Amino acid sequence: MKRLIAPLATVSILTLLAACGQAPEDAAPSPEESSSPVASESPSAAPTSTPTPTNACAIDPARISLEEKVGYLFMMGRDTTAGPVDETYRLTMEENRIKAVVLLGDTTAGVDGVRGIVQGLDPNGDVLIAADQEGGQIQRLQGPGFDTMPSAAEQAEMSAQELTGGAATWGEQLTAAGVDMNLAPVADVVPEEVGTDNEPVAALERGYGSDPGAVGRHAAAYVKGMQQGGQLTSVKHFPGLGAVQGNTDFSADVVDDRTAQDDPGLESFRAVKDAGVDSVMVATAKYERIDPENLAAFSPVVIEEMIRGDLGFDKVVISDDMGAAAQVADVTPGERAVRFLAAGGDIVINGDPSIQSEMTEGVLARAKDDPEFEKSLDEKVARISALHEGSCGIS
């Protein structure tokens, strides 16, 4: 997607590397400066009016078709190791009106190679391009021009000021590659007694620790740096995968039986929300003490009561993967998308392009049969419009 900050992204890689370690003057205070948990705010109700588009990058729900609206509700995966964008993938994008793509796979093509992939996906400059670039084992984009990023466990040893400076450089590198959005950071708090038995976070060194205050400060510092580097951000995996054992990507029936709606561990997400994060990603685990009937991504309690209400977050809510993840495999593709959107979510991440049409058709069918569901799409598209505005560098 076209960015107003694009000229900055053409700075040489030597300049980008030199920026590593330079900390902005207004960076967040270092973790050593405070050890107290982030203060809670009073819950606020979800917005009842549709935001109004304000610039050329905006999407006006009143001026686009139902099919176009539904296209904005998905972020489809593209394997960066699969070579140039092929005709099958391009047709899937066109037929489903897809306007957001997440780069999957671990590529070593470097900044120039990734930019070439992005140009094939987004020739008209109207597609939001995202990536998973957390650091450590979860750094999807590598090679010339990309620093080797430390893991979150290693980032936790940095001061918040140092982390903001590093994240700004890593964000600039993503921007230079044509990426608009980094699906990071992880704000999940892993209890000490769980430790590396936690497969999705601790075992992969994706977390900032077991103290909600410290996790929140580091995740917030990461967000500030990425935004300074030109990136949109998404904090994950609400309401936290720190207390589970299985990884929802590879295991079904992943259940958290300890996290409650008022859990102190959720304060890490509040800190990142207060730092201005652009979206919240919802986990697909089930939380027995929050909503024992639904996976979190299908739960109005999690999305409407907790994210919109308790957290007071009124921006875009994104799902964890609904395409290839084992946790949702027993739900039909169309129903996965419908349940997430009906629960209050905005963008469905689908890592399996082969089922995209099923998802799209499911949402279209529900919208045509349910006037209230169809009406809700306008608010979702308006929130997504604000996200697209951000990817254009508009404040």
From TrEMBL:
Regions of compositional bias (Low complexity) in chain numbering: 24-58
Catalysis performed (reactions): Hydrolysis of terminal non-reducing N-acetyl-D-hexosamine residues in N-acetyl-beta-D-hexosaminides
InterPro entries tied to this protein: GH, Glyco_hydro_3_N, Glyco_hydro_3_N_sf, NagZ_Beta-hexosaminidase
Leader sequence segment: 1-18
Region (Disordered): 24-59
Keywords: Glycosidase, Hydrolase, Signal
Domain Glycoside hydrolase family 3 N-terminal positions: 126-385
EC supergroup of this enzyme: hydrolase
EC number(s) recorded for this UniProt protein: 3.2.1.52
SUPFAM superfamilies reported in the protein's UniProt record: (Trans)glycosidases
GO molecular function: beta-N-acetylhexosaminidase activity
Biological processes annotated in GO: carbohydrate metabolic process; peptidoglycan turnover
PANTHER family: BETA-HEXOSAMINIDASE, BETA-HEXOSAMINIDASE-RELATED
Family: Belongs to the glycosyl hydrolase 3 family.
Protein name: beta-N-acetylhexosaminidase
Organism: Propioniferax innocua
